[in-house]
Design goal:
5-stranded mixed β-sheet; about 45% helix; Arc Repressor Mutant, subunit A; globular; alpha/beta; 6-stranded mixed β-sheet; 3 domains
Length: about 300
């Protein structure tokens, strides 16, 4: 028998939620992948763990017997792994850092060059993902810190602000007319989007909700919408004239790679670009030093 921590987490996730779809999303698996993992575990145990109905997924009697043992083993293994990771991190010998893809591509390389010049013996692993994904990596102890725009407070995490930000309107040159908030200003109000095609981030993006709230507040109705998951996709579509993209101000570092114009949107929607780490775990000095290097590179490029 070769039961893995991955299988235990899949089993516990489905047992808790009673839903394969939600569990697959939380574990960043496809639904087919999650189902295959559960089937592997059932095969190894030679028993069915779940009854699947049209309304819910419930534990079988065997599943109920297995549940407390699975919870204990998963908890002990996760805690032991976290302790071992913390031992290495306190020594500063390794860092696992998570970023959104745009920042990983545009700020991390220069930050790494400067940081490793002073810390050549530190091993750094870079992970890219959505804000939710990288925050969850910190929650589970799989990353030391995640860098991005985080809006909701999460129990067990602490957030450190690196730089203030607002929102930008980005569009193909000459395609749309900005509406400055005052004569001589190089900004635009939300009126630039009225009845215009809009390249929006998907609903799971916190930036999407900020933009939607502002559009509602200022009573601006947009035209056709195109929803995209990644900021680089939004910039590419804006460059090709598909509409006006609304992106965080700190993302203007990527605008130089595209033939686009951008204006800060007024009134400002203010928030912070931050990094999050686990509460109660003293961060290694190398993490604090990397964050300062990252902050200085961001400031130089925005």
């Amino acid at each position: 028998m070769n039961i893995s921590l991955r299988q235990l987490r899949a089993f516990l996730g489905v047992a808790a939620s009673g839903n394969f779809t939600r569990t697959a999303q939380r574990l960043h698996l496809s639904q087919a992948g999650l189902s295959a993992t559960i089937r592997e575990l059932e095969s190894q145990l030679n028993t069915r763990l779940f009854e699947r109905t049209t309304r819910a997924v419930v534990l079988t009697e065997a599943g109920r017997v297995f549940l407390p043992a699975a919870e204990l083993v998963e908890r002990e293994l996760s805690a032991a792994a976290a302790r071992l990771r913390d031992m290495g991190r306190q020594e500063g010998a390794a860092l696992r850092l998570a970023f959104t893809p745009l920042m990983a591509a545009n700020v991390v390389p220069e930050s790494m060059r400067r940081f490793l010049a002073d810390h050549p013996r530190v091993e750094v692993e870079i992970i890219a993902g959505s804000p939710l994904e990288i925050q969850q990596l910190v929650e589970t102890g799989e990353a030391d810190a995640a860098f991005g725009a985080f809006f909701s407070k999460v129990s067990g995490l602490v957030r450190k602000a690196l730089a203030p930000s607002g929102l930008l309107a980005v569009y193909a040159p000459g395609s749309y007319a900005p509406v400055p908030s005052a004569k001589g200003r190089r900004d635009t109000t939300w009126e630039i989007l009225r009845d215009q095609p809009y390249v929006a981030l998907t609903e799971d993006s916190p930036i999407h909700q900020l933009a939607e709230d502002a559009l509602f507040k200022h009573q601006v109705n947009v035209g056709r919408r195109i929803a995209v998951q990644h900021l680089d996709t939004a910039l590419g579509l804006a460059e090709q004239g598909f509409g006006i993209a609304v992106i965080p101000e700190f993302s203007q570092i990527a605008c130089a790679r595209y033939a686009v114009e951008h204006r800060v949107i007024s009134p400002a929607v203010a928030f912070d670009f931050s990094y999050v780490m686990r509460a109660g775990v003293p961060p290694p000095d190398t993490l604090i030093e990397f964050a300062e290097v990252f902050k200085s590179v961001m400031a130089a490029r925005t």
